[in-house]
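Lab notebook: predicted structure, single chain.

Context: the supervisor wants predicted structures on file for every construct in the current expression panel, including those that have not yet been purified. This is the next one on the list. No modifications to the sequence; it matches the entry in the shared construct table.
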Amino acid sequence: VKFEGVDAEIGNEAFRNCNILTGINLSGVKSIGEMAFNYCKSIEKVKIYSSTTEIGKKESSQLCPADVTTH
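Prediction complete. Output recorded below exactly as produced.
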């Protein structure tokens, strides 16, 4: 999933339990709701940029066994 070039907000549980995602590029995302990507077991890489200023509670605790990088 790529949100590049937009000022997006990802809602609570938006992609929860979605097992077809393999990577997430959050370069255009302003905020991520609670549990938005929880239990997405197929995610391998997540890129979070400085434009993301809010990350919901419990998001990082059950995100996935992914390689998370910040830019």
